[in-house]
Task: structure prediction
Amino acid sequence: MSPVAVVTDSTASIPESMLKELGIHVVAYYIHRGKEVLRDLVTVEREEFLRWMPTAATLPTTASPGPGDYLETYRSLIGQGVRQIISIHMTSKGSGAYQAATVAQSMLREEAPGTRIEVVDTQNVSLCQGWMAIEAARAALANLSLEEVLATVRKMIPVTRMIQTADTLKYLYMGGRIGMAKRLVGTVLNIKPLIGMRDGIIVALGQARSRMGAYRAMAEMLVETVGSGAAKVAYVHAGALEDVEKIRQLVEERVEVVESFFAELSPALAVHTGPGTAGLCYYPVME
Result:
């Protein structure tokens, strides 16, 4: 076991194979569907949830894990001999996860004074959060110190970016997560909105007249950011694998991509994006 344990949330949407390979510990979000209380990727899976969503008369709600959920995970790790933990969470402006983890961190200061827990607000979501957890875990497996693991994540926060599109922004709007992209809600049906994150808030990046136009715009934005350098890219979707395969082709014929993979959003994120969402989360490779 690495001397530094990496904890993140189910909304990071990291593929299961990578979670196992890197030893990343995941705390599940909650989904309230009518009277049901589901645990993200524990009692509800992606395919089942995406099949159900278009039939829903009322949008489910989501809730971040509470302090007790994080406390349970931290205590379990401490029980296994871990004394250093980095806990990596989505933007605190869109979820209470960071605050809940911070409460759990405070509760353990007296209970386990020999344990150090660092809680990180990524100011981002999805596989942007996921990339930070992945690289933190790799640094931990390389036996870097907690300070070095933390520094790796902090360097990534300002340069890790998300771009995505969907046929509609109604799910983000209904869920109250639309942020500064509200102006795109009223666009006509043949306009595909492009959204991203800035300073922890969802923002409008532009719009295109077709899905392929949106995918070309994504590739162009990535090229503008990366330039002649290289990037690591996660192609992210909600039941739209064929679409992200198209995005991958457009990106990788123009940019040196040193690592990439496909990832499907967890149900707790799909609640807000809706089926058919496609996009990417990437960061320029730093020397």
Notes: The first strand starts at residue 4 and ends at 9.
